Amino acid sequence: MTRLAAYATLERLKKKRLVSSHLGTGTAVRGGKARRYYSVEPSGVRALNESKAAHDALWRGVALPMGAVA
Amino acid sequence: MTNTNPPRWAALVLNLILKDRDRESIAGDLLEEYREVILPARGPVRGHLWYLAQIVSLMSAPQQGVFIGLLFGGGWVLMLMAVVSMLPANVYGTIVRHTPFDKGLGFGAMLILFAGAGFVAQQRTGDIQTAISAGAIGALAGMGSILAIIVVFDGGGLRAIAVEFLIISVTLGAFCGAVGGLVGTTVTAVRAAGQSVG
């Protein structure tokens, strides 16, 4: 996963209000530049739970490991 | 003491490609990783390459095309201008002291470059119009490269003034070319007078 993909994904989640962010204080090792902190919003937690439930539902009834198809 | 900073020009390019809201955090993330992880593990040369690769990876495809084109192709005018404008300022700042005069000195050196182009053109052709064109073309090539970077990379307000800036730059280049041409004409006239007296 590239750095750009990570930033773009976080920005998309922020636009959907699933996460929020704020800037911290700068540190010397960062040249005084602030670090951005992300937090998952309640709507983000709900979306995560729904996504997990949908993923689990996809596999329900499937016995693993599957046998070879003839 | 070891320098733990990435190349200044690369940091400048990074600032140009990042939007205002990301400028602090992404530049800080890169610098932190560069100083704490990359530099100790890979050393300065490979560290600089890593930093450059990260900047390119943050660019969109058109931005990458322009950047690589400028880096390896038509950026020579821009580089010449950068050297001419930065060298006197850096020498002055190092020997005397860093003041706002540095920027004025750099700007003045760039105008002298355009005037020099006009002077050379006049000496070669004897024509003042060619001198004006030489100054204007020098400004267009150099400033055009800078503006291409601004227009492609800048996410904010600089784009709005790009065309006006280019027009002013070319006009200034033409004016300096004319001054250089007039100096050339005077030099030619004085030389001719000296020969006729001799």
State the major sheet of chain A.
2 strands, antiparallel
> What characterizes the major β-sheet of chain B?
none
How many domain units of chain B? Answer: 2
**What fraction strand of chain A?**
5-15%
What is the distance, rounded to the nearest whole angstrom, between the alpha carbons of the first and last residues of chain A? 37 Å
User: What fraction of residues of chain B sit in β-strands?
Assistant: under 5%
Secondary-structure element sequence of chain A? Answer: HEEH
Describe the protein's topology.
The complex is a heterodimer of chains A (70) and B (198).
Chain A (H helix, E strand, L loop, with lengths): L2 H13 L3 E5 L12 E5 L1 H18 L11
Antiparallel strand pairs in A: 1-2
Chain B lengths: L7 H10 L2 H39 L2 H12 L3 H20 L5 H25 L2 H26 L8 H36 L1
What would you say this structure looks like, in words?
- The complex is a heterodimer of chains A (70) and B (198).
- With 70 residues, chain A is an alpha+beta fold.
- Helix content of chain A is 44%, strand content 14%.
- Chain A has helices at 3-15, 42-59, and strands at 19-23, 36-40.
- In chain A, strands 1-2 form a two-stranded antiparallel sheet.
- The longest helix of chain A is centred in the last third of the chain and has 18 residues, at 42-59.
- In chain A, 3% of the residues are buried.
- The model of chain A has no long low-confidence stretch (mean pLDDT 89).
- Chain B is an all-alpha fold and 198 residues long.
- Chain B has two domains: 1-58, no CATH class; 60-197, no CATH class.
- Helix content of chain B is 85%, strand content 0%.
- Chain B contains seven helices and no strands.
- Chain B has helices at 8-17, 20-58, 61-72, 76-95, 101-125, 128-153, 162-197.
- The model of chain B has no long low-confidence stretch (mean pLDDT 77).
